[in-house]
Fold this protein.
Amino acid sequence: MENNRFKQIKIRIICLFFFATLLSAFSGCSGGDTEKAMSSVSYENLMKSVNYLASGELKGRLAGSDGYNIAAEYVAGLFEKYKLEQLGDHGYFQYFGIEHNNIITSNFSIINNGKEKEYKLGVDYVCRGMTGAGDITTPVVFCGYGISEPETGYDDYKNIDVEGKIVMVFRYNPKWKPESGRWPQASPRPKARIAAEKGAVGIIFVSAPNNNPARTIIGSVAHGNGEQDIDFPQVHIDNPQSDDFFEGSNTTLSNVQQKIDSLKTPYSLPLKTLAHIVIETQYTKSKQTMNVVGIQYGSHPKLKDEFIVVGAHLDHVGGQAGEIYFPGANDNASGVAVIIEIARIFRKYRLEPKRSIIFVAFSAEEPGIYGSEYFVEQSPVPVNDIFAMINIDCVGQGDSIKVGGGKTAPELWNIAQYVDIRHTHLMSKSTWGGGGADATAFYNRGIPTLYYNTTGGYKHLHMTSDKPKTFNPVLFEKLTKNALLTVYNIANLKPEQEPKTLIKPD
């Protein structure tokens, strides 16, 4: 972390008298007019991008899909319109490969006493994003948390026959810790792999009912490490429907969880029901996707060789079987709209930053922040010359502005806080340290980061209800104004400036 300490010291040195001079840059600098620029930010402008990116035409913008590629072309077109220069390896695009799974058809039903009940995709269940294909009708066996670690004394598969059957398991690991101190990876792929190794032919994930999950079925392509099992179906059923499978078993899912958690011991059992799962997929191990990258070069002869990265992920989790799609309006059409609006206003009002600003719409955040990691690994500029990274993610819903990074980049966080005190009046003192999401790859390379988010903004996360109509117009507009002026002032910090601590973050 030597590079990180150096950058923090450098920022502390170059921000001398920053707050003492009351941020004189707010009144205009380098030929621009920041007051008029800030007043130009509007909810209507922002929503033009959000409405399009969240539309059915783009079908949830899954990285590697046609919908994502159309979204990337849209962003690149706006980068060109606002005179950003190309910085990708192919114009505005920085290409890389990503695992991709297209869910073509899906049907799921329960058979109980010879009667079949069909479930509705997107209402009663969803497919896991990296599900395999199959057409199976077979009994269901409940296997707790789907963990098999006999060497630690915990094995949900001990003394239970799952050969040729579908297993039902809790999606996440227990909240209590085992004697070994840690559980194995809780991602769907490792849990599915264990089930397959035990002889199962498919898996049904359920949410633990006693944990009061706010959301039970969501779209997700976060699958964990390992090879894809193309012939192993994976679905996630909503909690009310999960109890259907326990009919005739003299217990319920809630009772079983309570027994496992209280005794801290497995309680697996064969159920009296069968499941019928039909899923058709088209899996591609490496499909081309791209980050969208543009730059506004700085005006200072020396500082232009230092870079501020302003990023937001463009991808979301796609759709399933042509029946449903996850719009991803807040996650993260909102963040992309903010960086587009900042680029527009910088151009329109001739805001000429001393440092260069790189705007990036990242791909493949949803499966594992692969786009931002690729950007850092294959950076078009020297990584050591990246002065700061500003990440904007899920900022259209909620009730207040939240900016992460305050515990590890307090000088930058205080700039955002001061902007709020003077202009936006909606920023929480609560913050955190480190990176988070697409800021992580930059933080891990010693680059100071801020992460724009909101308080109470995850109500519709990864759901089909994540639509533009759920937005908070005042919050969205004010957050954009805060991000605009914070980026502007970080880009224009003079080498001799240093901040005084204005407000300590919570």
Notes: The first strand starts at residue 15 and ends at 16. The two ends are 24 Å apart (CA to CA). The chain has two domains: 2-98+285-498, 101-282.
